[in-house]
Amino acid sequence: MEKLISIIFIYIFVENFVLQRFFGICPFLGVSRKMETAVGMSMAVVFVMTLATLVTWLAYTYVLVPLGLIYLQIVTFILVIAGLVQLVETVLRKISPTLYQGLGIFLPLITTNCAVLAVALLAVQNEFTLVEAVVFGIAAALGFSMALIIMAGIRERLELAKVPKALQGTAITLITAGILSLAFMGFKGMLTL
Amino acid sequence: MQVLYAVAALGGIGILFGVLLALVARFFAVQSDPRVEAVREVLPGANCGACGYAGCTNFAEAVVGGEAKIDGCIPGGSETAKEIAALLGQEAIETVPLVATVFCIGDNRMAKDLFVYDGIQDCAVAMKYANGFKACTYGCLGLGNCVRACPFEAITIGPGGLPVVDKEKCNGCGLCAKACPRNIIQILPKGTAGHLVLCASHDRGKSVTLACEVGCMACKACVKACPQEAITMQDNLAVIDLEKCDDCGECVAACKPGTIHPRRNLPVAAPRPQDQVAV
Fold first, then answer.
1. Do residue B80 and residue B130 come from a single domain?
2. How far apart are CA A166 and CA B183, in angstroms?
3. How confident is the model over B36-61, as a mean pLDDT?
4. Which of B47, B62, B88 is the last residue of a domain?
5. Cβ of A162 and B118 within 8 Å?
6. Nearest CA in chain A to B126
7. How confident is the model over B158-189, as pLDDT tens digits?
8. Per the structure, how many domains does chain B have?
9. Is residue B127 part of a domain?
10. Mean pLDDT for chain B?
11. A93 at interface of B, judged by CB pairs closer than 8 A
């Protein structure tokens, strides 16, 4: 139990996927323009990451390890995650059109993201148990969501600020991301597994 | 042997997911009206919301479902209405193409500023401070709320600090008019016929003159000059009835501040009347 709690805090604050590990920078910059899309994306990430860690952990432990095929983990994980998300999308479309409309376009976007693959790989690398792996997936996704939502909030305010011409657009976004990352460096070393 | 395991494992997972996906696609298939997709294809796809629906897809669903009218897409105009009508087997309705027009020519040389505004670059926010930094409380602040509202990039802030409408790109959806906190932008039928009084000020003569060199000071010279009686005074502002206007240009000659302009040649940076070059 103690380990689960420390996993949650470590991967939300100390080892934040976006701000400390620099995974998933693409959606972090791409969909953080508006709060609405950032929240939609966050929900999709939580959804996909949790499912992905669960299924990839099972595939790793019960297929790859017994057959001695650990070197195939990256290929297998990509295959499993892509297939899984497609499956969930089809089911979701039928069962809950509202949820599908909310998550719809974000689900395929996040599938091939490096953050999702990283969750799967790190879960087996750290030799987590199944429960730990799933909690790790949720925590990493929450950390990602937090970074994304903070960034969206800052960028919505930045829209109204007078930015020097040379720094407008991507430049000021990257500077903002850098400063945000620096701020989170403050958590470094507070907790370790 | 090891190679065979690898092939079998990856191939097995691949086939498993393939079969699962095929089964799921079969049992969870969603019946959708192919006409919705067809209607969606002919719409402009800007998701501007001028039709009253959240986006083009929602409008397409509403049209096919019979909730929305086929000419509901303002940016698409007659063209789109015709195409939708053809798809749904209905009669086409002719619509009048529209264009946004900015009713202020008080650019940064003509209209005086009261103070230097250095705050948030947004017209509505700027108006919170002493009702705007311009001496004229009706004139365009030029901070570009209309520019940001336009999904078609048809409005830009011109050299004089006033919005300029690109008549080719503009299709009269009216989002800029809604975004303007001073209601300076009007949506008019497209065309070049007629003259317009390009001022939105309802102030009386002297205060207009003090604030802006090109404002309508309600002198009524144009009303008297117009042979068609197309010009009326509405709350200290001359308004030209485009139906009656026959483009004779008498009002332009009569207007001392130079507020009236022909629609075929709307000013971009509002040159002063005295240094206007005869065309």
1. no
2. 33
3. 84
4. B88
5. yes
6. A160
7. 888 899 998 888 888 888 999 999 999 999 98
8. 2
9. yes
10. 86
11. yes
Q: Is there a contact between B5 and A69 if contact means CB atoms under 8 Å apart? A: yes
Residue B3 lies inside a defined structural domain of this protein: no
B86 — pLDDT class (breaks 50, 70, 90): confident
How close, in Å, is residue B57 to chain A by CA atoms?
12
Look up the ipTM and state it: 0.74
pLDDT at B271: 46
Do B63 and B201 lie in a common domain? no
Residue from the list A69, A91, A162 with its beta carbon closest to the beta carbon of B24: A91
- Do residues B218 and B161 share a domain? yes
Helix ranges (DSSP H) in chain B: 2-27, 34-42, 56-64, 77-88, 123-126, 145-149, 175-179, 205-211, 221-225, 250-254
CB contact set of A130 (below 8 Å; sequence gap of 6+): A54, A57, A58, A61
Set of chain B residues whose Cβ sits within 8 Å of the Cβ of A91: 24, 28
Which of the four pLDDT bands, split at 50, 70 and 90, describes residue B124? very high
Surface of B (17-46) touching A: CB under 8 A: 17, 20-21, 24-25, 28-30
The number of C-beta contacts closer than 8 angstroms across A and B is 55
Indicate if B171 and B42 belong to the same structural domain: no
State the CATH number of the domain containing residue B40.
Answer: 1.10.15.40
Say if residues B199 and B105 touch (Cβ distance below 8 Å).
yes
Domain encompassing residue B178: 98-275
CATH of residue B109's domain is: 3.30.70.20
What pLDDT band is residue B108 in, cutting at 50, 70 and 90?
A: confident
Residue B22 lies in a domain: no
The residue among A87, A184, A101, A191 whose CA lies nearest residue B61 is A101
Q: How far apart are CA A116 and CA A113, in angstroms?
A: 6
- Give pTM, 2 decimals: 0.68
Whether the CB of A58 is below 8 Å from some CB of chain B: the reply is: no
The rounded distance, in Å, linking the Cα atoms of B271 and B253 is 16
Distance CA B38, CA B36 (A): 5
Per residue in B239-261, pLDDT (tens digit) is 999 888 888 888 998 998 889 99
Contact with chain A for residue B120, Cβ under 8 A: yes
